[in-house]
User: What shape does this take?
Amino acid sequence: MDLLDWVRGPLLIVSLVIFVVGVSWRLFAMWRLPVLHAPVAPARQTFGTGAALSAAFTRMVPSGGFHPSATLVTFNPYVFHIGLALVLLGYAPHIAFVHRLIGLSWPALPDLVMYLAAGATIVSLLLAMMFRLTDPVLKRISNTDDWITWTVTFLPFITGMAVIGDPSATILARDHAIYRGPLAVHLLTLELLLVWFPFGKLMHAFWVLPARMQLATFFGRRGVRS
Amino acid sequence: MINMDIFHGFLDAIHHLPEMAQPTALTDDERLTRAKAVMRAKTDRGLALDLEACVNCGYCSEACHFYQSTQDPKYTPSRKLDLLRRVHARETSAFAPLKRLFTPDITVDDLKEWQELVYDSCTECGRCSMICPMGINTARGVNVMREALFEAGLAPLELQAVAQEQAGRGTVFGVGPTELKQTLDVLRAQGITLPLDEPKADVMLVSTVIDVLLYQDALAATARILNHLGVRWTLRSAGFEAANFGLLAGSEALQKAATQRLIDEALAIGAKTVILPECGHAYPALRWEGRLADGQPLPFEVLAVSEYIGREISSGRLQLLPAKGEEANRKITYHDACKLARHGGVMDEPRAALQALGMNLMETTPTAEKNWCCGGGAGVFLLNRAEGLRHKAWAIKREQIEATGADTVVVSCASCRLNFMAGAEADQWTTKIDSVVEMVARQLPA
Assistant: This one.
């Protein structure tokens, strides 16, 4: 049993358990807190869950009316999140990995798209780091969580680049992995990300909708477009 | 006409507020214990979600007039919740036992540092929430921080003084029922009918210390409009003060007590509607946060006066004379007070009222719910040490108004109006500052 067997087997299970249990616990710990501010005043307009959900999605669009900021600072997170989604869900070996794990499968995107997406995502992460190191506001508010989260997000991309020597069709056609060491390291970095996920700000993936919906409801009941 | 001597007297009184405060003597340990108790008790699901959702992107700084006018990153809005975040991480979050190993506890020095961040440099305007990609209600967290600091005896002395006066003597800046009656007598001498302490009325009008002392024309204008509409209304000496210094200082108990006075009087006379004066924070305090002692909704409608007037105009019940001659050529712009607009939803009605004047209404950029704060709200106007910072923030507002080309900026919040007047005087700014209710009253049919 070499390193790849370990990271594909027991370590993957351990990291997935930490991820699922940790995220579930964090969600439960939030839910168990009391609600102190249930509004009682009659709403200016009806604003239900559907409207809040809609507002949560429209918040993805950059909001006008604010002090002009560096275009790149606004643009960069979009590049990162779209690139991450494409690489994670569209790359054929990733789909094969998920298929082997839970039996689900879906069509892959062309390799060229993946290479471009991965490249753009890595550049966007490097830019994000540069902003955090140089922008006075980001320098002031950054904390350990930001650095750890950046690192565990960056590592799977860099180590992933080390195992794409062949087109995905060639990789998938083989009945065994030939870059066992690099692939094991790549999987290890993914597992590191899964382990860190419940403890840091990666949890924003779970908070984004409820947080946006909460604010949209607060404003929406009052007739304020948010 | 505004009596500028009274305006300057008011500014002078603000300078002396700290001398009137009776701060509670507490040890550092007591301050810390009290502050943390509030922070723990107030961290409910909604606030915890806000605290945990922040990704430290810093976008909120783009929306904050205090950061934008100083470029000092210490004023970044998300940072203002850091102490709450630390207490939550250590005590109420999912991995609290683990977080305690890596997250330092807060100290009294932290609390003292945060005084400037949550009082002087935050008007709780909520503009940062509009840009936040995670949808965090920073203003709510800042208000919880104010509550924590108030309990720790660390609220600014100015706000402590006024809140203590309002809670104790029931007056604000020395204005109580006697002073109200004196002002009403002055206005009655001008031929304006102003009912006081009627036992029953459909509408209870609320005023505020600033109107009683300084903006008496606004009170007179409101009375004239209500009389013109034939409304059965009254003021009540036992509940006429809209300003809520418990809310501004950070005392929930004092806030509730001030609100309760208004509720009790409205219930006593069987009011169907309570009309609040041109006072920004009074609106969310009663309209959105007010409730009966048993937690039930208020059995009467609460309207800001500009909201009421705009509604009456839109329904056709109130018709105004068109502006004539030079007046018709006036270029006016409207300043949305944060508490009325962004936190209250009162945006269309004041505009309906201003459009009915027949003048040229120009919008600021940005406007309505994204409008820039004037820099003086949430009690910041009363803080002497914040004067320089406030003036820097005001510059953004001034430039925004100037960019419209308007000769008049119309406000519907006495606190904003004070800040505009102070800013204008300091900068020798010549743009006229007017009020919605006064402009409407000038064009009432005879």
Summary: Residues 387-404 of chain B form the longest helix (18 residues).
